[in-house]
Amino acid sequence: MLRKNIVGLLICIAAMGVTTLGFAGIPDLDTSSCTMLNAPVGVNVNVYNTPDGSGSLMTEARAPIFPVPPAPGPYSTEEDATITVTLLDSGSNPVFAYPFEDIWLENPPAVPPVNVGDPAGLVACPNGTIADASTDINGMTTFSGPFYAGGHVDYSNDGNDTNDGKTYVMVSGSPLTNGPLLLLFNSADIDGDGLWTTSTDVLLFSQRYPVAAGYHYSVDYYFDERDDISDLVWFSAARNVQCP
Q1: What is the rounded CA–CA span in Å between residue 136 and residue 77?
Q2: In the chain, N or C: fewer CB atoms in 10 Å?
Q3: Chain segment 93-125, per-residue pLDDT in tens
Q4: Does the pTM of the predicted model rise above 0.70?
């Protein structure tokens, strides 16, 4: 009997500990953090999205090479842009089991916008940019992609990354204050309506792809600051994709 009581007491204590750890913590936007641990410092990296999630993983992000190498290149490198998020409460304690669907990415347009008339930054399908999993015992989770999204971020290759759109980690609708991240997104769904169509996306691509049209980030999927055959291949492969 005594043994059963002791076991029961231990179970209650364990349950109380898990309850306290899992549900008492409310993420504090100032003490919590997000970072791209393996990405180059101070440099924009780009991730290619599609509405059906067949785009790039975060480990397949790309960054231009500077100074520009002689022809024939390559002019960009593959980078790991995986985002690590750590949620802490106001006492700097880990917030365990915070729901993954309440942690997502947003990328609003720059102010003033670089691409007037284009979609408002990253346009996600429903739950298209949420975290990989709920936070673990250390309050940590990741974003590894691929994402279900269209549209594209504001970017101009003027050498000043502070002028470009930035990515924010949102926690229940509010951004973590240690952001934003130098992370860009573009997509074959150029107009961000959730599907690849000949009437809009093909038309926009045909207007922006030719060399004579100048550089357009919205169709630079290989992100080498050139609109060339590699971008055409990626765009064509996304034919007829749409949000789930």
Answers
A1: 32
A2: N
A3: 999 999 999 999 998 766 555 555 566 689 999
A4: yes
As a whole number of angstroms, the distance between CA 238 and CA 19 comes to: 45
Tokens of 225: 């600051």
Amino acid at 193: D
Q: How many CB atoms lie within 10 A of CB 62?
A: 24
Q: Where are the alpha helices (DSSP H) in the chain?
A: 2-23, 203-208, 229-237
Beta strands in the chain (DSSP E): 33-35, 45-49, 61-64, 76-79, 83-86, 103-106, 122-124, 140-143, 149-151, 168-171, 174-175, 183-187
User: Alpha-carbon distance 172 to 241, whole Å?
Assistant: 29
Condensed to tens digits (0 to 9), the pLDDT of residues 158-210 reads 776 667 888 999 999 999 999 899 999 999 999 999 999 999 999 999 998 87
